[in-house]
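Standup notes
- DV: blocked on the single-chain target, sequence here:
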Amino acid sequence: MICCQNCGVELEENANYCSLCGEPVLDKNSAQLDHLTFGETKNKALTDFQKLNQLQKRKIFWEIAGIILFSGMLITLTINLVINHSMTWSKYIITTGFILFVNITLVLFLNKKIFSLFFLSFIASTVFLLLLDNYTGNNGWDTKLGIPLLLAAYIIVLSFILIERKAKQKELNLIAYSIIALGLLCVCIDGIISIYIESRLSLGWSIIVMVAVAFVSIILLYAHRRLKKGTDLKRFFHL
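- DV (later): unblocked, structure below
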């Protein structure tokens, strides 16, 4: 097995291009010369931003996001106070902007600590739902509908990311896994909504979605397995 020099993904021996990033795979004879030529051109074209390390880039993005979000919240609050002489509709936008900024901060600085990232993001999103319910009169939809849906979504997305990180090859199998995750999310949405409305579990449209998802996923995983064994693309697709 060989690895892509650009992203590090494991590739087949006869691969010409990386299946993840599309970077051409250089052979041993031309790799050194092409690398020198490409490296010299790339170094000349580097901008000041490209010379920064990943942490510095994340800090710049975080500062820009903060300026945009807090400016928008301040403008919204000012308009609301001028027109209504009190904070009414602006509290929805301010709350949304603040929670969004918290999640952006978590993604930028906890991207390597996946469990801490998801746990803190879930707490922040839960607080957001609780505040929205409070703004609308404490109807109770947050604990009975919003938080269960949120929890299901977070668990499914976290599971998909963990599977994606453990996968040695990232090709058609990831598409299949993402489709399966989408189907499971549909089942959770259908089930949780039915419990909230009818006080009992009743699955309807999500069953149809899951059957279609299973059929497509099986085809994709089969295609991935054939390609993994080195089956030629022309032979596989009968071209």
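- Follow-up: The two ends are 27 Å apart (CA to CA).
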